[in-house]
Structure formats: C-alpha cells, structure tokens
Amino acid sequence: MYQTDPPRSPKDVLPTMYDLPSEDPEEPGLPDQFHLLQPRLLDETFRPQNYPSDEIFVASGLNLYYDPRHPLWHKRPDWFAVLGVSRLYEQRDLRLSYVVWQEGVHPFIVVELLSPGTEKEDLGQTLRDIKQPPGKWEVYEQILRVPYYVVFDRYKYEFRAFKLHGGRYAEIALLDSRFWIPELELGLGVWRGHYQNVEQPWLRWYDGTLNWVLTSTEQESQRAEQERQRAEQERQRAERLIAQLRSLGVEPDVDT
What we know:
Structural class: alpha+beta
Largest sheet: 6 strands, mixed
Strand content: 15-25%
Radius of gyration: 25 Å
Mean pLDDT: 87
Number of strands: 12
Number of helices: 6
Helix content: 25-40%
Order of helices and strands: HHEEEEEHEHHEEEEEEH
Low-confidence stretches: none
Shape: elongated
C-alpha cells in the first residue's frame, strides 16, 4: 500500500465494517440454545452505574476485527462489552461487526462459554501455527489487551476470571463464585434460578448491595407483586376500620 506523507490513519485507509464480512456460513460451531440465552441474560443485567446507556455497546457472536495488519482476521466472542462508545456505529447504524481500527476503543470485558471443541483455545492451551491467526487468549491478552476475561464452563457451571496485570492475565480468586469489578461498579457471578423458563446456573451481574441486577421481566414482576401487596394491605386496613366502627355501633356505608 502506498504510504502518504503525512501517513493517513487506519480509520481512513483500512476497510470498515461495511467492507468486511459479517458472517461465515461455513464456520463450525453454530450456537446452541445455551449460547443464545446466556449472552442475552448478560445483556439484560449489564447496567454499569457510571456509564450512560448510550455509551455502552454489548454483543455476542459478532465478528471482532482486531489487527489492521491483517484486516480479515477476527474472533467471535460469545459476549463482550465496550465502554465509552456509541451504542450505534457512528451514532446511526446497528453494527455488522466491531472493527477496532474504526472504533478506536477496545473491549473492556470478554466472556467465552467453554465447550469441548473450544476449551483449550479459550484457555490459551493450544500451540499456535505461525501460519494461522493467533488464538483467542493471545488476541485478548496481548493484542487487544482486554482488561477482564471470563470463561464459563457450561457443563460444570463453573467460571474463571482473569485480569490483565503486567501485560499478562492473572487469575482472580473468586468468593462464592463471584467477583467485583470496581471500574463498572458491578460484579459477575453464578446464579441458580429460572431464566426463560429454564432453571440452572447462569452467569449474571450483581450490584453493590450484592443483589442480582433484575431483568426487565423481573422488574415488572416485582412491581406487580409490590402492587398486590399494597392492595392487600389496604384491604386489611379497611376491614379493620369497618370492624372498629361496628364495635362502636356504627354501621359503615360500604359497597357490597
């Protein structure tokens, strides 16, 4: 490629998300139901208090293009979040892919859901063929330098968390299968409960009071239950008042 003087930025000369492929129908490992539902729960409960919602981008199974020297190289994280970027590409379009040299901001956290076919690569236990693109671990740790990396074993329902320290990932000691991320004012942990009518352990976010962040459906159910309780309390209060009036020989005028 001809080099201009002064050099033009990669944003100007390299392909954008409109130019790069957004899917590969021949790629193995099509998502199963767990790979569809678990990222959705992470989406629904990811609400950092110190970032406005329109400056948070989350995605699952989206091409993440990371190397301007090899513009076609990409990974497809099971879930990742980027902070400080518009929810929409250039504040107008839904993203086809996430192209680092166009966006200018790297992911803050990546979550991979382990399966037998991807476990070794997800944990950085494979040897790289120098003729092939680097594995996920190398990309997240050494190229993108993602501050937090989480892997969740969907069969054992166990997860491990890593934080970038001194250029390498160091494993975080978990307490009750949870860990707190100060930069987000949120924590991530394993919760056992019903989601989409399926009961099992799930990864989800919790707040500073150690309460799980509610989904919109849970919030609606909570509001409905609170309203039911208020109505019941009002009914009981009215019944007590009627009983008191009758004990004084006063027959209250009430609708029957």
